[in-house]
Amino acid sequence: MQLGMIGLGRMGANIVRRLTKAGLSCVVYDRDPKPGEALAKEGATTAASLEDLVAKLNGPRAVWVMLPAGHATESTIETLTGLLSPGDAVIDGGNSFWRDDIRRGKALAQKGLNYLDVGTSGGVWGLERGYCMMIGGDGEVVKRLDPIFSALAPGKGAIPLTLGRETRDPRVEQGYMHAGPCGAGHFVKMVHNGIEYGLMQAYAEGFDILRNADADGVAPEHRFNFDLADVAEVWRRGSVVSSWLLDLTSSALAQEEKLESYSGYIEDSGEGRWTLMAAIEEAVPAEVLSAALYTRFRSRKDHTYAEKIISAMRKGFGGHVEPKKG
Fold this sequence. Notes:
It is elongated, with a radius of gyration of 22 Å. The chain has helices at 10-21, 33-40, 50-55, 71-81, 98-109, 126-129, 139-144, 146-152, 170-174, 184-211, 228-235, 244-255, 271-282, 287-299, 305-318; strands at 2-6, 25-29, 45-46, 62-65, 89-92, 114-121, 132-136, 176-180. The chain has an eight-stranded mixed sheet with strand order 3-2-1-4-5-6-7-8, with helices on both faces. The chain is an alpha/beta fold. The model has no long low-confidence stretch (mean pLDDT 95).
């Protein structure tokens, strides 16, 4: 099976690498030719333009767009709709707003094109670990493109099957799911990222409390001086709060416990805001997620050790780098 990949950033390039290793054929394009040149040495075929990419794919084509949400994705998909043929499929694997997916899906359907929105989690570790995917769109198209998704997914690994799941969709245990019609994939991924904000905030505040256990305002007989790297490491092993985010925290603290290379300035990529918009529309209380988002806003004016913990986690799972001062 072939796949065209547009956008060869941290995740786009590694998706191509994982597919190539699995024996799939990839045609790649990026405005910057350097990532494509590197992937060509690993078996991918480069394209000089969107037109060239479409020409090098056999029908029915599948083209994955891995670009920042907003204008870059919108304009690229608009251009593709004029180049593709009926029966071809466009996949948006970025973090687009789910209502945009519904609109795009309807527009492409009028031209005989298929549209899938694929919420993709895995960050810079996806090449090694695989990608968790939440897919929106027509079920028959998802089934046709299954070789792509199954190659990208982590697989069952050592995780035992959950009791009671024996008759459910086996793809889910592999690490990907058909969430529903257009928009459903990015809706699930949006809430996933909103939850991520809350989890990261909880870890960050907990480690900030541990770090300040010997603060001047604490009575001398009540003070403790904890080794935070050791705390993080012991929690990784058998604790009910163990997780990949804790793994990343432990790694960051082992290298630099005071996290002096981080300012604590935390960006938000939009999904947290969209999650709260959905919560408001549904009249669902979301106190933890709201507080986590507002803390990110505050971090841009006033930073604590907790924000440095979050910055370290974001760099660990997604390669997110704090903006330079000024």
